[in-house]
Structure formats: structure tokens, C-alpha cells
Design brief:
This protein has 754 residues and is of the alpha/beta class. Helix 25 links the parallel strand 20 (592-598) and strand 21.
Length: 754
């Protein structure tokens, strides 16, 4: 077990009484919490047993489950078993339908506040004047922020200054549980249970969705209303700041309730009240990818950590004695004494902990005990009470997250970028551990059916005719015209396909309407090439949630609530363009030159990936500089002409233009030609259409282009495979190639012969 007194002291005390009661012998082995997970895993995987009983956080159960023995029937048949609150008993003591551990401590996050400060008439009047509402314990996270700001820097009744609130901000200081608790209300939509950490249908990490981003921004903002040095606060330091009277509020586990009334530890005895974690009137619905405005405050109390569990390794040679010790340690009588004793780390988890209120006078006044237990019980009884993350690899997921949170809090990274990196790392961990295994584990933890929602292969396999809808972003570009031509040609090869085509004519709003129309028609499948990412994510998610297979072509959306993505690897294409640019500018290690980059649609995923791939390569060359600010050419020749004309006026020396498609590269060339500077500049484009990019390479206008194959043909083929009952991979990347003077003529010759 951990070496701290919390959990450790009652475990040792009850080991002595267990020895006296049974005549057995119990040896307590303790370890620092930071080493505990690794020590336990090594012991569980060893051939010879090292421990007979493990005391471990509930969040590690998924990692330990394969090595733990099932609980004996006699324990499950006892009154003590039924005395455990279902939030712990039904959700945390089981894994995959088997009882594998016993709760010995109940944990959830909650709020603490200074009653004396909140009830002060001067504070109440000043707060009302400043914020326009009454000063009460916060009901929403926005109110929590206002209250923290209001009290921050005010004079304390005891002299000195008081600060707004205390939270854990330090890495390895239980920081991420504070963030989890704040994100809970924003991301646990009541119509999409289990979506706080991962999409429970697709297992894509959700920690960079708008609900999470709001929670993390607010966590960072609250640092300004915390005591000096709060960036180094773990949960212990944050707790001490509140106990010492330095803050008006705190977020913490239940241990703080008893500590606030301990005169040896607390300067705020008799002044403390409690509140359920705040909520929100706007909840992020990641199923439909939109904010949902609520008529009343929505709260999702978070069972952070979930409490300590006790389990028995399968290879223990003393299983009966081990379970007997666990039953003794967690018995109603012993656990009641522990839960009312300051410093044990044991928090309420049994019904008798709530009903034996007289026992609490050892720790709290009757009124304080009633208020505290009422707050805990309201949290546990909430229909929206949210469970902590509890899947294999928990330790790895949280390590990655803490690394990025630390960068955010120190000001080393913007919130969006850091959380996108964290989400990408979570997805990589999931893939490494096994996507299907992790999805099954996550759905088990979130008490969801084993089979995820969303469309299934072969749902329409019995049909002889399929209606497939296609939503195209625009047909104003030659690449799009080729896209449509190839898609229609492939559909025509299948007489069982009826194709319904919608052209958004370069309008985001119109494409959203087109998607809604295809959904209303209940087509058998939808192919969509989004104009932009964010606005099209919601209708794609809606179709997927209604059971319509959705195939996203060319441009990605912000989540993966679709059946399949088909497109080129735009980041790899960007890298290839970067490598060609380095060659043209002098070679690796020697390259020098000024570069103009002309973006495609800046709100689209291909443009972002083509930029990042290019920059990844050229930033290794100190002599290569992108000299213009990002400008959106929207894939259009005329807009690129204007961007290049401005660049030519502003920069007397330009060595290379990198445009995100061939028409924009050609537009830039025309602008340079019109002022007689085209011979001094190299031009790179992307698409590789024979009638455009390949022809311009052959003519010497472009130095190179990179094939970006249209996904139309493959989209039809993959949709039919799925409708007929075959599984399709989640992401299908189309091949690319570099087109320059060495192969342009051959490509044009082959094109002319077709």
C-alpha cells in the first residue's frame, strides 16, 4: 500500500486487531505512491506471489483485473456487502461482470467555502454590485470563477490577504483529477453517457473537444485567483492553503471536511461549508458535435479517483485469510470509526456512514456533519454522477495529459495546441494497446453494452437497391470536377446504386442544408466532402448517430463519428513539398531562400496538414524563411494571384512559392510573370491533374506538383462493401507521387491515350 498515513494507518491498525481476532499474521508493506503502480504490476506478473492483499486506486482495476481473484460468495451474501453505496458497489467493485475487489474508501471531488466570508454583509453587497447576482456557494463553474476573482486579494478578517481558491496545479500532485472534475459537467452529456474521455462508439480521445478546451482554459484562468506559488501546489499544498485560512474556496476530496474541524490542523474551524461540484447551463454534445443549452443547471458530480479498493492476487497462497482481512478492514464498524477520524483518508461509502450521524460528532458538529454528508450523498445519488477513467493504461494516459497541462499552466503552450497533442498521444496509446480491447474496456467501465452504437456493416445487406447520397463542397475547381466525374462513373458501374448528388456551390451553409436533406431522406449511405471542418462535423455526427453510414472524403471533420475517411495523406504531401523546396533552394544543410506560402481553405483539414507537413521539413533549414503571414487562397487561382501580387510588392526577393493546390500555384506564377519576376522564382503546387498541374510542370511553369488522387471512385466502392456486410478500415489513405520534368510527359501521354 502507499506509505502515507492516509489509507496506510487504518490498514495497519486493523491488521493488528485482525491478528488478535484470528491468530493469523499480517505484514504490512508500504511504498511511495509514485512507485506503487509499477511495484504492483511487477508483483502481479511475477511467478511467485509477493502480496496476498493489494490496496489500490479504483482507476487501476482494469490493469489489475486479469491477475485478481474473484470475491468469495460469502462476502457478496453478507449484509456488509449490501451496505455499500451502489455508486461504488455496482460500478467499481466489478469488472466485466465479475466481482474482483472490495471498496474500502469512497472518493469524489467536491467544494469547500468559507461561510464567514460568504455571509459577511459587506462582501454580499460588494459582490452584488460587481456581478449582478447574490453571493452564494457556486452553482455553476462561471459563478465559481466570479467568486474566486471577487475574493482574490481582499483583506482577510484575521489580517493579511485572502485569495480566491485553492486547487492542485502541480504535475504529480493529483493535478489532472482537478481538471477531470471540472470537465465532467461540460462533457458528460446526459443523452450520450460515457463520452467524457473517449467517444464510446469509436474510442477516439475527447480531451480536445470544445467542452474539454473550455474546462482547461478555466482551470488555467483560476490560477490567477490562487495564492502565490500555486503553480507548485499539489493537492496537499492546496488543502493546506484552505486550512490555513488563505483562500475563500477549495476543490478537494472528502478528507478536508474532518481536517477543517481539527484544531491542530485548521484555522477555519467552525467556518466551513460544502458544495456539490458546480455545473453548467451549456453542455457539449460530442455525439452531435454541438453545444446544448440547458434550461437549468446541469451537474455531473465526479467520482475522482473512485476511492481505494482491496483485491487478492490469483496466485496468493492464502486467499481465504486475505479476503477475511479485507472484510474485517472494511466492516461497517471499523470503517465507521475510520471515516470519522481525521487523517485516515477514508471517506464515506457505506449507507451506515450516512445514517449514524451521532458518530460524526467525533469529527464535526451535528450541523456540519449533516451538511457535509448531505453534499456527499447528493453527489453519489445524482443520476449524472460521473465515473473516473478506468481502463488499461490509465497511468500512461494521465502521464501524457499532465505533461501537456503543465506546459499550459506554465505558459509554454496554448491550450488548443497542447490538448490536441494530448489527444493524439491518447489515440496512439489506444492503438498500441489494441483499439478493440480498449474500446471494450471503456464501454465496460462506463456500464455500456459491449457493442457500440453507430451503423453496422450489412445493415442493408438484404436490399437489392441502394440509395447513396453525395454532398460535394463545390464544383468551381477542376479537381472537384474530376472528383465528381470519377465518382459518377464508378456509381454507374453498379446498377443497384441510385446516386443522389448535392452541390453546395462553395457555401458552408448550403452544404449543411444539403446534409440535413440527405439525412431526412434516410439514404442508405452518405458520401461527403466537407467545405470546412467545424461546421460540417455536426451534420456528419448526426447522420452517424442515426445509423446512416457516412464516408468522409478528402477533407476531415473534427471527430471520428463517421464510418470511414478516404483521402490522401496531406501531411505527407506537405513533407514531400518541403523536401523538394529544400532541394531547389540549395540542398539539405545548405538551403537558403525566401518562401511565400499560399494556403487553401484555412478552416479545412487538408490545408492545415499541407502546411504542417511542409513546415516540419523546412524549419530544419535555418536559411529558409516563410516570409508572408498566412493568407487564405481558398483553393482559387484569382485569390492566389492577389496574394502573390501583394507579396511581390512587399518583398523584393522571393525564391519559391508553395501553394496548397495547382490553380493557386498557377495564379501566383501569373502574378510574377506580369511584373517580370517569374524566372527568379520556383513554383510548387499540389493535385497533379493532367490537364492542369502535370501540363504546367511539362511547360516549365511549375517545378513540381504532387498527386492528390480524388477519392470518388474509392468512396463508392467502400460504401458498397460496407452496405453488403464487409468491414472497412476507419481511415483509408490514397497513394501519392511526385510529378516533375522526369515523369510529366509520360503521364500526359498516358492521359491522352485514355
Amino acid at each position: 500500500m502507499q506509505s502515507a498515513d492516509a489509507i496506510g494507518s487504518p490498514a495497519k491498525a486493523h491488521a493488528l486487531t485482525w491478528e488478535q481476532r484470528t491468530g493469523g499474521r499480517a505484514e504490512i508493506v508500504q511504498s511511495d505512491f509514485g512507485r506503487l503502480f509499477r511495484d504492483y504490476m511487477a508483483a502481479l506478473q511475477a511467478k511467485q506471489p509477493a502480496y496476498d492483499v493489494l490496496l489500490f486506486p479504483a482507476s487501476w482495476a482494469a490493469d489489475f483485473y486479469p491477475y485478481l481473484a474473484e470475491m468469495p460468495d460469502e462476502y457478496r451474501d453478507s449484509d456488509a456487502f449490501d451496505d455499500i453505496h451502489p455508486a461504488y458497489r455496482e460500478r467499481l467493485m466489478t469488472w466485466d461482470g465479475k466481482w474482483i475487489a472490495a471498496t474500502v474508501d469512497g472518493d469524489l471531488f467536491s467544494g469547500y467555502y468559507r461561510k464567514d466570508l460568504f455571509s459577511d454583509p459587506n462582501n454580499q453587497a460588494a459582490f452584488r454590485t460587481r456581478y449582478g447576482y447574490e453571493l452564494f456557494p457556486p452553482d455553476t463553474w462561471s459563478q465559481y470563477r466570479d467568486i474566486a476573482e471577487f475574493f482574490n486579494g481582499r483583506n482577510s478578517p484575521d489580517g493579511g490577504l485572502i485569495y480566491g481558491t485553492a486547487e492542485a496545479f502541480a504535475r504529480d500532485g493529483k493535478q489532472f483529477w482537478t481538471v477531470f472534475s471540472r470537465a465532467s459537467a461540460y462533457t458528460n452529456h446526459p443523452d450520450f453517457p460515457g463520452a467524457q474521455f473517449f467517444d464510446p462508439d469509436t474510442m477516439r480521445a475527447q480531451i480536445d473537444n470544445p467542452g474539454w478546451l473550455r474546462a482547461v482554459r478555466e482551470h488555467k484562468e483560476i490560477l490567477a485567483f490562487s495564492p502565490p506559488g500555486a503553480l507548485q501546489f499539489g493537492i496537499v499544498e492546496a488543502r493546506d492553503a484552505f486550512l490555513d485560512g488563505h483562500t475563500a474556496m477549495a476543490l478537494d476530496w472528502g478528507d478536508t471536511a474532518q481536517l477543517t474541524e481539527d484544531p491542530a490542523r485548521s484555522k477555519v474551524a467552525g467556518k466551513v461549508g460544502y458544495f456539490v461540484l458546480p455545473g453548467t447551463t451549456r453542455v457539449w454534445d460530442s455525439r452531435l458535435w454541438r453545444w446544448d443549452d440547458r434550461d437549468s443547471v446541469y451537474k455531473a458530480p465526479f467520482l475522482a479517483f473512485g476511492g481505494w479498493m482491496a483485491g487478492v492476487p490469483k496466485h496468493s497462497r492464502h486467499q481465504q485469510a486475505a479476503w477475511d482481512y479485507i472484510m474485517w478492514l472494511s466492516s461497517p464498524e471499523n470503517s465507521l470509526r475510520d471515516v470519522v477520524t481525521s487523517g485516515t483518508g477514508i471517506n464515506p461509502y457505506r449507507f451506515t456512514h450516512f445514517t449514524n450521524i451521532d458518530a460524526w460528532t467525533k469529527a464535526l458538529s451535528i450541523s456540519a456533519a449533516s451538511e457535509y454528508l448531505g453534499m456527499v450523498r447528493a453527489s453519489l445519488d445524482s443520476p449524472h454522477a460521473a465515473m473516473d477513467l478506468r481502463i488499461p493504461g490509465f497511468y500512461r494516459y494521465t502521464e501524457v495529459l499532465e505533461e501537456e497541462l503543465t506546459r499550459i499552466l506554465r505558459g509554454d503552450s496554448e491550450v488548443d495546441a497542447a490538448m490536441h497533442r494530448a489527444a493524439a498521444a491518447w489515440n496512439s496509446i489506444t492503438d498500441e494497446l489494441g483499439h478493440a480491447q480498449q474500446l471494450a474496456a471503456y464501454r465496460t467501465e462506463m456500464a455500456l453494452p459491449k457493442e457500440p452504437g453507430g451503423p453496422r456493416p450489412g445493415t442493408h445487406a438484404h436490399k437489392v437497391r441502394y440509395v447513396i447520397g453525395f454532398s460535394q463542397a463545390t464544383t468551381t475547381e477542376p479537381w472537384r470536377l474530376l472528383f465528381n466525374k470519377e465518382l459518377r462513373a464508378e456509381a454507374a458501374r453498379h446498377p443497384e446504386v441510385k446516386l443522389v448528388v448535392r452541390d453546395a456551390m462553395d457555401s458552408v451553409r448550403r452544404q449543411v442544408v444539403d446534409m440535413e436533406d440527405l439525412i431526412a431522406r434516410r439514404v442508405d449511405a452518405i458520401l461527403v466532402s466537407p467545405k470546412v471542418t467545424d461546421e460540417l462535423t455536426a451534420p456528419v455526427s448526426k447522420a452517424f448517430s442515426l445509423g446512416i453510414p457516412v464516408f468522409v472524403l478528402d477533407r476531415d471533420v473534427a471527430n471520428d463519428r463517421y464510418t470511414q475517411y478516404i483521402g490522401g495523406d496531406n501531411r505527407e504531401i506537405g513533407r514531400a513539398a518541403g523536401q523538394r523546396a529544400v532541394q531547389l533552394l540549395g540542398g539539405e544543410g545548405l538551403a537558403e531562400g525566401n518562401v511565400i506560402e499560399i494556403w487553401g481553405g484555412m478552416a479545412s483539414s487538408p490545408a492545415a496538414d499541407r502546411h504542417s507537413g511542409f513546415v516540419e521539413v523546412v524549419q530544419r533549414e535555418p536559411g529558409v524563411k516563410i516570409i508572408n503571414a498566412p493568407q487564405d487562397g481558398d483553393w482559387k487561382q484569382d485569390l492566389a494571384y492577389g496574394i502573390m501580387a501583394e507579396a511581390l510588392d512587399a518583398h523584393p526577393h522571393i525564391d519559391l512559392v508553395y501553394a496548397h493546390n495547382d490553380p493557386m500555384a498557377y495564379g501566383a506564377y501569373l502574378a510574377a510573370r506580369d511584373v517580370g519576376r517569374e524566372e527568379d522564382i520556383a513554383f510548387l503546387g499540389i493535385d497533379g491533374i493532367p490537364a492542369e498541374g502535370v501540363k504546367w510542370v511539362q511547360e516549365g511553369i511549375l517545378d513540381a506538383t504532387f498527386l492528390y488522387k480524388t477519392p470518388g471512385e474509392e468512396g463508392i466502392r467502400q460504401a458498397l462493401r460496407f452496405l453488403r456486410g464487409e468491414h472497412v478500415q476507419k481511415r483509408l489513405m490514397l497513394p501519392t507521387s511526385t510529378i516533375d520534368k522526369t515523369n510529366a510527359a509520360k503521364i500526359l501521354s498516358r492521359y491522352a491515350a485514355e
